[in-house]
Design brief:
The complex is a heterodimer. By secondary structure, chain A is of the alpha+beta class. Chain A has 15 helices and 8 strands. Classes of the chains: A alpha+beta, B alpha/beta.
């Protein structure tokens, strides 16, 4: 764990090291071309596109309703967020008002999804630095969220539940009670993770002070989400530019404080995710107690045919700020749909923050950025 | 929602569009981009490339956000598909990958970009698939591209 920038210390020959595309620590099919000087990294070029399926070209041949399942497959660890983000964009284009019940159910689903996605991020980050047990524990708790999703949507990973203008169907009868049961079970578990991983001496040694991302670098590279907040910037779209009904809930935006090292290190990015799960529980408890009755499909348009125009809408997913830019020509298919993928921008900062670190620290830094390749490659 | 600081400063060079975004000539982009950065728009959210079907015109939409003042700005340029556009990758580093994507999928050329090459598609790919006039090739690397797609539709 030493950052060496003065090349004269080693001065060995440069070597090109290839990591991936089939490497367990790259979280999917990502290839890193690492130029090393001894064991010190001097340059990293991420090579992406192994999962590219031209999502944007597909969208130009599909009607607005048919695009929803494709958005689920972009970020497969937070499929609910992608469906929600896309639906908000289309609703902005159509200019429709939603029933309160729909908004509440969407918020509940999104916050459960955020917890599920952060559980994977935390567990996999532990796995990257050599802690095997936390991964099994986080997956155990994530299973219970997936069980809840299965009750509602019938699917465990790719839901196709949030549609433009409404939802596929209403909640099942016992859902609210099951959700509160889960929250009562889950809240003490976070203390368990803290004891096992967050305050673990070996874990702190591996992650604190490693891969420090200064504020200016983070903004200039377009880094968003927990990775940005780890650098100490309290920027969360749910708070700063509230969409849906997030302005009705009381919650905080956790930021990195450099408790174990410097502000913006890998440990901070990790710990922001742990704190965000607690905030999600807060939102969920409020939403579950206030949920009104109503019809979830009353605002759903029979045919989606927006008038000519463009819209750019933003949404805070588990990984950051996803944007949908949609150009409509007045037909039932979009002429251009662009998705601004948060993990794509987060990954582009990798070279900047990992130059000068050892190869084993690159794994730590990459794990703390929490990337999903399905969304990067689209 | 959009901020009018740019349209006030460069009055004769801007056209205001319906949704509040600003259309400028691509030759002015070099001077205006620096002004946009200096006026506090530190976060470049997205660069969207698009193709107008009617003629050889391509377009770019830049969405900016100011994290300190919470302001939005959308700037658009439209140009002939042979033109080279000033690259802003040295001002906003995030534009590096966005511009590479616009080059890869839409075939827009940027001048002054540090490393303009394909990013999502393989290096030996021919053509730019998001163009409206793009046609599927007969062969890809010697393998025939299936014409009958009924089994996956």
């Amino acid at each position: 764990m030493y950052k060496i920038l003065d090349k004269s210390i080693i001065g060995a020959d440069e070597m090109v090291l290839n990591m991936g595309p089939q490497h367990p620590s790259t979280h999917g099919v990502l290839r890193l071309k690492i130029i090393t000087d001894g064991e010190i990294v001097s340059h990293i070029e991420p090579i992406i596109g192994y999962l590219h399926r031209c999502f944007e070209k597909h969208c130009e041949n599909l009607s607005y309703e048919q695009i929803v399942p494709f958005t689920d497959r972009c970020d497969y660890l937070a499929a609910m967020h992608m469906g929600h983000a896309y639906s908000i964009a289309v609703e902005k284009l159509l200019d429709i008002e939603l029933p309160q019940r729909v908004e509440y159910i969407r918020v509940i689903m999104s916050e459960f999804q955020r917890i599920a996605s952060h559980l994977i991020a935390i567990g996999a980050f532990g796995l990257d630095v050599g802690a095997i047990t936390p991964f099994t524990w986080t997956l155990r708790d994530r299973e219970r969220i997936l069980d809840l999703f299965e009750q509602v949507t019938g699917a465990r990973l790719l839901y196709n539940y949030i549609w433009p203008g409404g939802l596929a169907h209403d909640l099942p009868p016992n859902f609210i009670r099951n959700s509160i049961d889960f929250l009562d079970y889950f809240e003490p578990q976070i203390i368990e993770y803290d004891n096992l991983l967050t305050t673990n001496k070996i874990f702190i040694e591996r992650s604190a002070d490693v891969g420090v991302m200064p504020k200016e670098v983070a903004i200039n590279y377009g880094v968003t989400g927990p990775s940005l907040r780890g650098s100490g910037i309290p920027f969360d779209l749910r708070k700063n530019e509230p969409y849906s009904i997030y302005d009705k809930f009381d919650f905080d935006v956790p930021v990195g404080e450099g408790k174990m090292g410097t502000i913006g290190d890998s440990w901070d990015r990790y710990y922001v995710r742990v704190l965000e799960m607690k905030e999600s529980i807060k939102i969920l408890r409020q939403a579950l107690s206030q949920i009104p009755d109503g019809d979830v499909q009353s605002a759903m348009p029979k045919k989606i045919r927006p008038k000519k125009g463009e819209v750019y809408s933003r949404y805070e997913t588990a990984r950051g700020d996803v944007g949908f830019y949609i150009r409509s020509d007045g037909k039932n298919i979009p002429t251009r749909l662009k998705m601004r993928s948060p993990a794509y921008c987060n990954l582009s900062v990798l070279n900047e923050i990992s130059a000068g670190w050892m190869i084993s620290d690159v794994i730590t830094i990459l794990g703390s950025l929490d990337i999903v390749l399905g969304e990067i490659d689209r | 929602m959009n901020d009018n600081i740019v349209s006030d400063k460069f009055k004769e060079k801007c056209t205001l569009l319906d949704n509040g975004s600003i259309m400028i000539d691509f030759n002015d982009w070099e001077s205006i981009s620096q002004f946009v950065y200096d006026s506090g728009f530190d976060y470049l959210m997205c660069i969207t490339s698009y193709d107008l079907e009617s003629d050889d015109t391509l377009g770019l939409a830049y969405n900016f956000y100011s994290t300190s003042e919470k302001k939005y700005l959308e700037i658009r340029i439209e140009f002939n598909n042979k033109e080279e556009i000033f690259s802003i990758a040295n001002i906003w580093r995030t534009a590096d990958w966005h511009e590479r994507e616009a080059y890869d999928l839409m075939g827009i050329l940027f001048k002054g970009h540090p490393d303009l090459k394909r990013i999502l598609l393989p290096d030996d790919w021919e053509g730019h698939p998001l163009r409206k006039d793009w046609e599927e090739p007969e062969y890809y690397n010697g393998m025939p591209v299936p014409k009958d797609k009924s089994y996956w539709e």
